[in-house]
Amino acid sequence: MMENEVIVTIGEIPYTTTVQYGKHQIIVDEPEDLGGQDQGISPTPLLLSSLGTCKAVTVKMYADRKNWPLEEVKIRLSHEIQTSEQQQTTYIQCHISFKGDLDDEQKKRLFKIAEKCPVHKILTNPIVITSNHL
User: 33 by DSSP, 3-state: which?
Assistant: First the structure.
C-alpha cells in the first residue's frame, strides 16, 4: 500500500462503500431513492466536503499564524452542472463566512487564502485520471 493511497471497497450491499485511508475509515453510500442504504454521505457531496474542509483548515491555519481572532469559519457549498455539445462544466459555489472580530482587510485576505488550499488547486487545474485493473 502506498503512503497516500485511498482504498475504496464495495461488497454485496448496494451501494454502501467503505473508504479506508491509513487508520481512518468512512462510509459512503447512495440515498435510498437511488437504491442505496443511506448509511453515509454520497460521492458528490463528499467531493464538495473535501473542498470545503480544505478551505476551512487553510484559512484557520493562516489566521492562527497571524494571531487573528477567527472564532469560526462556515462554508456552504453547492454545485451545478451545465452541459453543452462540446463539454460539461461544473460550477461550484462556496459561500464563506467568518465569526470573530476581523476587519474588512483581514476578511478579504482570508477569502484569498481560501482559494490557495490544496484541493482548490487540484480542482482548478487539469486533472488526468488513469484507471487500470490489478
Answer: helix
The answer to whether 16 touches 3, Cβ cutoff 8 Å, is no
Q: Grid cell 460521492 — which residue?
A: 43
> DSSP labels for 34-55?
GTS---SB-HHHHHHHHHHHHH
Q: From CA 87, how far away is CA 78, in angstroms rounded?
A: 20
- Ramachandran category for residue 100: left, alpha or beta (phi over 0 → left; psi -120 to 50 → alpha): left
**Residue among 78, 26, 77, 20 at smallest CA distance from 54:** 77
Please give the distance of CA 29 from its chain centroid, rounded to a whole number: 16
Here the cell at position 39 is 448509511
Phi and psi at 117, nearest 5°, equal -70, 150
Query: All 3 cell numbers of residue 37?
Result: 442504504
Considering the entire predicted model, what is its pTM?
A: 0.92
Query: Per-residue pLDDT tens for 51-90?
Result: 999 999 999 999 999 999 999 999 999 999 999 999 999 9
Distance between CA 109 and CA 58 in Å, rounded? 12
